[in-house]
Amino acid sequence: MKTAEDYQHLYTGSAVLCLGMKNALQERGINAVTKDEFESARLGGFGSLPDMQDLFVRADEMEIATEVKNVFLQELKY
Asked: Does 4-76 carry CATH code 3.30.70?
């Protein structure tokens, strides 16, 4: 079973960008984990910044995931 130490932070951004990036990663066979502190805080009765999510990938997939992230963000710049 994977633990939190097996994952590394890849990206922080809007929910829309994180979803698109997560889909791009899945096309390469990488399953990213999304952390949404706003939703967690909301469910717990606390406040946080809305629409910001973190993406994490397994440490052994970080190199390929970084390449996918860079291409994804570059394509957004037209």
From this structure: yes
